[in-house]
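Table S2 (text version). Query chain:
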Amino acid sequence: MFHAWFCENFYLILSTIGFGALYFLYYKKYRHYIFLQKDQAPNPNKPRGKCPPFYPNGWYRLLNSDELKINDVKHFDYCGRNVVIFRGTNAKVYALDAFCSHMGANLGKGGVVKNKSCIQCPFHGWVFDGETGNCVVSSDNLSRKQVDQFEYHDIKQSKNIDGNYLYKCYSGNVNLKKYHVRELNGTILVWFDSRPEFQDNIPYEPFDLNVKLDYRGESINFVNCHIQEIPENGADIRHFDFLHTKLFTFTSLIKFEWKMLSHRATEDDLFEVMKHKHEFINEFKMKVLKTYINDSNKKYINVISLDSYVKIFGWKFFLFNATGFQLGPALVYLFLKSKLFEVTFAQSITPLKKFNIRVTHRIFASSFLPYFVSAFMLYSEVQQLFSDMLIWNNKTFGSKLTYNLKTEADRNLISWRNWYARFYEGCHEFEQKQDALDW
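Corresponding structure-token output:
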């Protein structure tokens, strides 16, 4: 009986299996769509002109949460710092200076997580508490270890005094610098600030999106330019008219048109300026503004509003509006709203080296949106980024600028640069010290 039924329904069974296999491949490819740029440093040594400091103070994304399991230890040489990141047995993420204060071993290379919050040096077993950075007696005894420190009288000239080349310079406790960590939206962010008074007194927090949207994927790109070039797009109204009109590379009959606003979160007229003509978007926009801007963070936020239209054979149709927040020097959040969908992009900018910048976009979309649509949206974002990268990878930093202040576009640019410059306070002195070190 089964044999007869199988023969009778053979083609139906075959087509069902084939459809299931195709859907599995589709699901695997597009549910969490990942775009990784292959060429990571096309021209890092090109002259860039006179630049501000390279690592402004702020929150930086170092890695994704799923890349750091319990007991995992990783080393990062980003933003002019060497940092060890580890996840304790309590599932909490910790960040410390990477080099052991005993004899300089890199804790991120062979270090072992001990107890809830400690990391043990792979060289001689010294233990450091991730909660405090303190060198402790052991992972079971968090009392601070008593140590003596020695240094050379003159390490360059090899001078000795009374037959000794080294002398005791300190007795007591030691610690490694602890960095503040936030784990939000599937990413791990670390606070880097050159000013001692802001090491622990953090002036603003990254956004906890807490959106009822599905994570759909991520793009990872690499740009060779100064970090400021990238977020400066958030105030550059006119560049959209020249770089971001193409929807498809093979035809100019279908193209984008954009309308952009840029405003400081501290301005009294922010809500009035950001008011939108479409009521459903205006309601969404006002809710987003009220959710994420507060008295403590508003001086560190630049707000943008971006209307996207598509023009087909001369006919223009509204696609969506994006409400964007530039938070500090390296984080951008874009909240897209249309009649058909809601999508959020979380952008992070991380200087790996001075002119080698990693740019990531994570996309969160409405659950009902087909996977291939969110994948196409992320890929389209990448294509727009490639248009910018053609400029960024080949330009010098404009330290002496010529503006036409009769235009709103150039007034926005100079206002934005004045706002962004606050993130460089104390950075020049820090980078001079880093450059002076002999490794």
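Notes on Table S2: The mean pLDDT is 89. DSSP finds eight helices and 22 strands in the chain.
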